[in-house]
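Hi W., the magnesium ion complex you wanted:
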Amino acid sequence: MNFLYQIAPNLEPLGGELLKCIRQTFQMLMVSGLIAFFLGVLLGVLLTVTKSDGIMRNPILYKFLDKIIDVIRSIPFIILMVLLIPLSRALVGTGSGVTGSYVALIAGTVPFFARQIESVLADVDYGLVEASEAMGFSPTEIIFSVYLKESIPGITRVTMITFVSLIGITAMAGAIGAGGLGDFAIRYGYQMGYRDMIWVTVIIILAIISVIQFIGNVIIKRTTH
Amino acid sequence: MIKLEKVSKIFHSGGKEIPAVQDVTLDIQEGEIFGIIGFSGAGKSTLVRCINLLEKPTAGRVTVDGVELTGLDEKKLREVRRKIGMIFQHFNLLRSRTVYQNIAFPLRKSSLSKAEKDEKINSLLELVGLADKKDAYPSQLSGGQKQRVAIARALANDPKVLLCDEATSALDPQTTKSILGLLKKVNEELSITIVLITHEMAVVKDICDRVAIMELGRVVEQGTAEEIFVHPKEHLTRDFISTASNMDKFLELVEQNNELTRLGTGDKLVLLTYSANNAGEPVISYLAEAFSVKANIIYGNIDILKGKTIGKLGVALSGEPEQMEKALAYIKEQKVEVEVVKE
Ligand SMILES: Nc1ncnc2c1ncn2[C@@H]1O[C@H](COP(=O)(O)OP(=O)(O)OP(=O)(O)O)[C@@H](O)[C@H]1O
Ligand SMILES: [Mg+2]
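Structure:
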């Protein structure tokens, strides 16, 4: 500890605050990450199967999803955040704080992630889908045991990429009072000019990313044959 | 076993109509190996895919094992599809699953117990000769081995019918032979009806009982493999046969007027096709004796068609015109097919 305080002197008075911010960042990552993951996979699958050559062809639904994803994706996150405050109030009862950030974080992540899932699923050889249809499998069974099962390495890869960009936008969520490491870095590193606190946040974020990447790489290695 | 009645499939693509299959009627018997041959784009794949309704025919009826598939709803259709195995040119194995798991895949919906499934899979692995590869992943297998896995997988639900879409087209000749051997074994030992699509006459020659020739979405000729080989009617059929027995080389020589095939006045270049029970040789020596017609053999080939030999001889005949006529008539009498290639 003493050694740490020596190289980062501001850690001593700000340690408690830092821990709180780390907890907030984790909370944002966990909750919005988990929800965004499922929504993104769901949308990616829907885009894949409702396409004109998909197994549950539905041009109207496809067009609708396709457009809405493009629209949301083209709005800069900082604006999206403000735009979604009323929706957040309606859904989770507040438009600020950690809880108030979830809706925006999810909306900022899902469209990008859904597109990536779509492109991963497009790499699944259509021959496999056809063979499964010939074996008498239903579209739902094909989605789970062919599209998703065969794509685990690809899904893991894009999840890692998206996770890193989610960390990026959680830092911005500090602007609506969500706190977190980004907010910590702005308040102490920028406004107060504590260089050591900037370094501390950078190191913590790098550590989080490294852990995620390590886990992701293990999964990819285990599931690629 | 499989009945196609006036089946048509029209694709709509970019505002245009593509009639991939037109008015095809076929009756495939239980236990036979039925070949469908045609050049690329003839509509072969579309036609087999109409058998298990992977492609919904735009007109006509499809009946498999007494059940009319064209009248079924999706759910029922999925059930009957389990009794129709299918294998593909590119194997279509699941990469994330081992050989064992690939074969287990279609069994997920079966009512067998875990132990019964295990026994089933192991016996299939024995059948296709891959018992030692059961824990390998498809990426670790050769093309021939992958197709063996695909065959085992297609047989997992004890189908009555096995559809093969260019199952050997991605394989070398040696491997093709061994896969065809396996299909033959499957056909004989498990009495499974096989529909085999190919663009190689050699495949038909090796294992098919009957064959249909397709062109531009239509079946232009069909019959037993022997009939087709010995008495081809359509030009297209002859093309396939000549490719299969190297005869195209001979015909090419004729076309180029090579000196080997150059004829004197009144000479005829004929192609004789005979099967084992009316062998060609004695006929030819008889020509010289009885009609003083000289026969000069330019080309010869023997095909083995499901164990039966079919010979082809390209012969230049010369002699008196009257004697030539008699000689040709005599040859025909011997049930040897004669085609005058050049006079
Ligand atoms: N889904 C589709 N949409 C539009 N046209 C199609 C479709 N599938 C096939 N066709 C057309 O139908 C025709 C027959 O195709 P098919 O694949 O049945 O031929 P094939 O005899 O199997 O050829 P190959 O030997 O190359 O596999 C072709 O002209 C092809 O372009
Ligand atoms: Mg084809």
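Residues 47 and 215 of chain A are 28 Å apart (CA to CA).

W.
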